[in-house]
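[Automated response] Your request has been received and processed.

Submitted sequence:
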Amino acid sequence: MPQTTQNPKQTGGSVQARDLRAITRLLGEIAILSESLDQKRRALINGLARLVKADGWIWTTGRIDPISQSPMQTNMLFGGLTDHQLAALLDSPSDTKTPSPCDRPLAALVAKGDPFVCTRQQLVDDETWYSNTNTKTYFLEHGVDQCMYAITPFKKLEFSGIGFFRLTGHPPFSEQQRQMVQLVTSEVHWLHDNSLPEEHGTAVEQLTPRLRSVLTLLLDGCLCKEIAGLLHLSPHTVKGYIHDIYRHFNVNSQIGLIRHFRKVE
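Generated structure:
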């Protein structure tokens, strides 16, 4: 059975003095940035990804669907991933017919209400992971294999989470690297700020998984052509999705949408 405790045990070492110095330097660099919250968040996660030798990452906020036990994102940032890899990782939790084997163990941990950091190996064993259709379709076929998740649960199965990823052929994340991530994510509380007004949660959940993906990319500043490329859709299809999102939130432009969510003046 996979481990699903708050602080799963794993061999592989502990945080060393050089790691602490590297983390301190990173936090110092972030502290002097006069940027927006999302820009500081992106810079911090980029730096943390470098320290643990991750090839890419996705930060998201959302909630666990109590029926399907799959995550539903309401906000997102990402880095280090190709367009194909990002699109595949966004589609993975939307495939309820062949869900990821990590979904239910992660949902169980979120339901406990305590922050945690765990590697894929602490969620599911290798046999389960590599034989799963979702793994093959959305991870391995796009060159992504190793995963590490840092999740901070909120109320009502809501969470802030970072997924760190390594390409196929690379070794699993070590216990030392897991502890480095846990040290940063447990102490930097603004890293988990949703940055979306609470009242928008229900409205976002009413959107289909595809529309939620388009929404998060719009809020990250992506334009129609960029979104089409990331999600492997035609610009015409994306325009239709954008129109549906604008109508859903009663806005008529991307700037209006961002102001609606971010309270930008």
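Summary generated for your ticket: The chain has two domains: 17-195, 200-262. The beta strands are 56-64, 71-79, 116-119, 144-153, 158-167.
If you did not submit this request, please reply to this message.
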